[in-house]
TrEMBL record:
This is Histidine kinase. GO terms for molecular function: phosphorelay sensor kinase activity. Pfam families: 2TM, His_kinase. The chain crosses the membrane at residues 5-24, 30-51, 72-97, 117-136, 370-391, 397-419. It comes from Chryseobacterium rhizoplanae. SUPFAM superfamilies: MFS general substrate transporter.
Length: 437
C-alpha cells in the first residue's frame, strides 16, 4: 500500500472518531474517546486495507484495459463477498470482543442482522466508489498512453515516408545525368533532345514526389514520356508495350514506381538490336504488372538498392497489400497493387478504426452508467435503512426498495457484462471473420 493511502485511512479514522464521539456519545470521557478511536481505526483500516488489497490484486491479474468485462464482474463479486466478510469481522470484534454488548448467539441472530446489513451497505458504497475511481484512473492512463503511442507511430511513419520520397529526387537526377553524359559522346543531337524531354519529366518528379499516391493514368502518361527518353538512347535495343485497361486509370499507385522499375530493367539487363529488351506494362485485376525478358548483365558496381526496396517500403506504409516479385529463368515480373482509394499513412483501415473507437467509447459509457447506478443504490438504500431504523424499528419496510432496486442493479450488470449488445457484437464479428476466410 502507498504511504498516501495510509495517511488517508489515518485521517478518516480521526474524522469518524470525532464525529461519533461528539454526536453519538453521552459520556464525554477520555476512555470513551479511546474506545471510539479504536473502533474507528479498526473499521477504517480493516475495510480500507481489505478493499485496497482486493483492488490491487485485481489490477495485477485482470487490468481494466486488458480484460474490462472480466474485471468488472470480478470487482462486483469480490466487493460483495469481501465486504460481507470484513463487516461481519469488524462488527464481531466491536460488539462481542471489545464492547461485549452481545454474545456470539445474539450477534448471529436477527437482532444484529439489520445493523450488519446497514454496515455492509455503507462498506459497499465506499468500495464501489473506490473501484469506479480506479476504473476511471486506469481509463485515463490507457487513453493517454494510446494517444502518445499513436502520435509516435504517426510521426515515425511520416518521417519514414518523407525519407523514402526524398530518395526519388536525387536518384532520378543522378540516373538521368548518367544517361545524358552517355548521349553527349554518342549522339550530341539526341542529347539536346533528351535534355528538353528531361526538363518535362523532372517537373513531374518535383510535382508528384510529395504525394502519397497518384492515379494510374498520371503514372502511365509519365512512363510513356520516360520510355520515349529511353528509346532516344537505346533506339531498337529496347521495346515497350503498354496494355493497361482504361477502367483502371482512376485507381492509385505510389508515384514514380514505374520510373524506378523501368530504370531497374535497363540497369540490370543488357539490350542490343539483335537481342532487344522487351518491357511490358499491363493490368490484371487490381494489379499493375511490369514484366521484362531476363537478359542479366554483369554488374561492375554494386547496386544501391533504392528502386525496388523504395517501392516496397512505401507500399507497406500505405496498405497491407504486398508488392510481389516473380523471377523465372527468362522473365522478371513485379506486381504493384492498385488501390481503389487513398489511405492515410500508418492507417490502412481508418474507417474500421473509427468505428472501433466509437464502439469502445460506447462501452465505456455503459460501464460508467452501471457504476453510477451501483453507487446510487448503495447510497440511497443505506439512507433508507438509517431512516427506517431510527423512526420505526418494528416495521422493516426498507426491504422492499432494497430488493426491488437490487433486482434492477443485477439486471443492469447482466446487460452490461453478460448477455446484451456486447454478446451480439461478438457474434457478429465471429460471423464476419468466418465469411472473410
Amino acid at each position: 500500500m502507498k504511504h498516501k493511502y495510509f495517511k488517508i485511512l489515518l485521517w478518516t479514522s480521526l474524522g469518524t472518531t470525532l464525529f461519533f464521539f461528539l454526536f453519538f456519545n453521552d459520556e464525554k470521557t477520555f476512555s470513551t474517546f479511546l474506545i471510539t478511536l479504536l473502533l474507528s481505526t479498526m473499521y477504517s483500516f480493516v475495510l480500507g486495507f481489505g478493499n485496497g488489497f482486493i483492488n490491487e490484486f485485481l489490477n495485477r491479474k485482470f487490468p481494466w484495459s486488458e480484460a474490462t468485462r472480466t474485471r468488472a464482474v470480478l470487482s462486483i463479486i469480490s466487493i460483495i463477498i469481501g465486504n460481507f466478510i470484513l463487516v461481519y469481522f469488524c462488527n464481531y470484534m466491536n460488539y462481542v470482543v471489545i464492547q461485549k454488548t452481545a454474545t456470539i448467539q445474539e450477534f448471529f441472530s436477527s437482532k444484529y442482522g439489520v445493523t450488519n446489513w446497514f454496515m455492509i451497505n455503507i462498506a459497499l458504497l465506499i468500495s464501489a466508489f473506490l473501484h469506479a475511481k480506479g476504473f476511471m484512473e486506469e481509463l485515463k492512463k490507457t487513453s493517454r498512453k494510446e494517444v502518445v503511442e499513436q502520435k509516435l507511430i504517426a510521426k515515425s511513419a511520416n518521417a519514414q515516408f518523407e525519407s523514402l520520397k526524398n530518395q526519388l529526387d536525387p536518384h532520378f537526377l543522378f540516373n538521368s545525368l548518367n544517361v545524358l553524359s552517355s548521349l553527349i559522346d554518342e549522339n550530341p543531337r539526341q542529347a539536346q533532345k533528351f535534355t528538353a524531354s528531361m526538363s518535362k519529366i523532372y517537373r513531374y518528379v518535383l510535382e508528384q514526389k510529395d504525394k502519397e499516391l497518384v492515379t494510374v493514368e498520371d503514372e502511365i502518361e509519365f512512363a510513356r514520356t520516360y520510355c520515349d527518353l529511353l528509346k532516344t538512347r537505346f533506339e531498337d535495343s529496347v521495346d515497350f508495350t503498354f496494355d493497361v485497361a482504361e477502367e483502371d486509370y482512376q485507381k492509385y499507385v505510389v508515384p514514380l514506381a514505374l520510373q524506378l522499375l523501368l530504370e531497374n530493367c535497363i540497369k540490370h539487363n543488357f539490350a542490343t538490336s539483335s537481342k532487344p529488351l522487351v518491357i511490358k506494362i499491363f493490368s490484371a485485376g487490381n494489379i499493375l504488372c511490369i514484366e521484362n525478358n531476363l537478359q542479366v548483365r554483369e554488374q561492375i558496381k554494386e547496386s544501391s538498392g533504392i528502386g525496388l526496396s523504395n517501392i516496397v517500403q512505401r507500399y507497406s506504409l500505405l496498405t497491407d497489400r504486398n508488392v510481389f516479385i516473380e523471377k523465372s529463368e527468362d522473365h522478371f515480373k513485379v506486381k504493384l497493387p492498385m488501390l481503389l482509394a487513398k489511405p492515410h499513412i500508418a492507417s490502412s483501415e481508418p474507417e474500421d478504426e473509427s468505428e472501433a473507437y466509437k464502439r469502445a467509447q460506447k462501452r465505456v459509457k455503459e460501464i460508467k452508467g452501471f457504476y453510477k447506478n451501483l453507487i446510487s443504490y448503495c447510497t440511497v438504500c443505506s439512507f433508507l435503512i438509517f431512516i427506517n431504523l431510527f423512526t420505526s424499528s418494528r416495521t422493516h419496510w426498507f426491504w422492499f426498495p432494497v430488493l426491488g432496486w437490487g433486482i434492477g442493479v443485477a439486471s443492469h450488470a447482466f446487460q452490461v457484462f453478460g448477455v446484451g449488445e456486447s454478446w451480439q457484437e461478438k457474434k457478429i464479428r465471429e460471423i464476419m471473420n468466418k465469411q472473410k476466410k
